[in-house]
Amino acid sequence: MENGARVVVSRSFADFTPQATFDIKKCDLHRLEEGPPVKAELTREQGLQYYRTMQTVRRMELKADQLYKQKIIRGFCHLYDGQEACAAGIEAAINPSDHLITAYRAHGYTYTRGVSVKEILAELTGRRGGVAKGKGGSMHMYAPHFYGGNGIVGAQVPLGAGIALACQYQGKNQVCVTLYGDGAANQGQLFESYNMAALWKLPCIFICENNKYGMGTSVERAAASTDYYKRGDFIPGLRVDGMDVLCVREATQFAADHCRAGKGPIIMELQTYRYHGHSMSDPGVSYRTREEIQEVRSKSDPISMLKERMLSHNMASVEEFKEIDIEIRKQVEEATQFATSDPEPPLEELCNHIFSKNPPLEVRGTSPWSKLKSVS
């Protein structure tokens, strides 16, 4: 029966709409004559790919929540569920050779930049097979052209401007996407970075992921102006619906074109929402109501919105989404098996990769009787 059902599904692929155009929310503009388009085209393949990406991040984060509660993941752990359209939409609009740096809520971007669920979960559990060999943990994962999560609030922004300077210097027509949250948006180092980026016309897309709360403080209580897209003053800005993957994709495409054309930096504010608390130590309901979270989930969940769009335009079937979901759950379960059985890194590796070459160095204070060396 299973096979029979499958055959019917695959035979009806021909009946699906291969491509559709959707109306998307108009962006608010700052110092721009015109903004991104208000219509977005989506092919069936793209739609399924975005769905798969967002659903994988969602399942991975829910698994991280579970492992944290079982005390298998320890320490800092900031989850990305609710904000998946930001990571998926940005990645859909830039090239793998472009650069991206973010804060510590980094699991989603680590995945969209090409790291497997297996390596991410193994990093969270501190195992050898993790993306940073089990020594980085939740906030410190890296990949080619991905400069990681950064644990210091706002510190990634000047680094991102520096990466954009390198892009300009190397002349390969690349851009750097520099992400920060509404909580970091009032820091002095951001404005210093804006100033230098504008003076030198750096190809930097500064993106504020505004999820409405910096830790437990709502944006209204933290910022005298919550128009984060205007806060670059002399830098053009866009305010985007960060819960719609198509809005994010079109706006990022627009911003990347702006930077590649040599017009200098641009600021994007993605209005989004996190379902979890700030980190795993924050239940997330002392400063906002459960009803508020539920309302966002029911009205503007990024995954449900994409799925409904595709179903209403006959671009995919309910069964197909179910099959993808089953496949993703299986993938996450297998990754979890690996992340809980892989060994932890041995003590001898504690001091490796401190230097790029191997200097004759003793790392003092690790323990009085062992002389550990840095090997790279």
TrEMBL record:
SUPFAM superfamilies: Thiamin diphosphate-binding fold (THDP-binding) (SSF52518). Its EC number is 1.2.4.1. Transmembrane segments: none annotated. The keyword Magnesium applies. GO terms for molecular function: metal ion binding; pyruvate dehydrogenase (acetyl-transferring) activity. InterPro entries: DH_E1, PDH_E1_Alpha_Subunit, Pyrv_DH_E1_asu_subgrp-y, THDP-binding. It catalyses: N(6)-[(R)-lipoyl]-L-lysyl-[protein] + pyruvate + H(+) = N(6)-[(R)-S(8)-acetyldihydrolipoyl]-L-lysyl-[protein] + CO2. Keywords: Carbohydrate metabolism, Glucose metabolism, Magnesium, Metal-binding, Mitochondrion, Oxidoreductase, Phosphoprotein, Pyruvate, Thiamine pyrophosphate, Transit peptide. Residues 53-347 form the Dehydrogenase E1 component domain. Pfam families: E1_dh. GO terms for biological process: glucose metabolic process; pyruvate decarboxylation to acetyl-CoA. It is found in: Mitochondrion matrix. The keyword Kinase does not apply. Its main location: mitochondrion. Its cofactor is thiamine diphosphate; Mg(2+). The pyruvate dehydrogenase complex catalyzes the overall conversion of pyruvate to acetyl-CoA and CO(2), and thereby links the glycolytic pathway to the tricarboxylic cycle. PANTHER family: PYRUVATE DEHYDROGENASE E1 COMPONENT SUBUNIT ALPHA, PYRUVATE DEHYDROGENASE E1 COMPONENT, ALPHA SUBUNIT BACTERIAL AND ORGANELLAR. This is Pyruvate dehydrogenase E1 component subunit alpha. It comes from Oreochromis aureus. The lineage of its organism: Eukaryota, Metazoa, Chordata, Craniata, Vertebrata. The gene is LOC116310071.
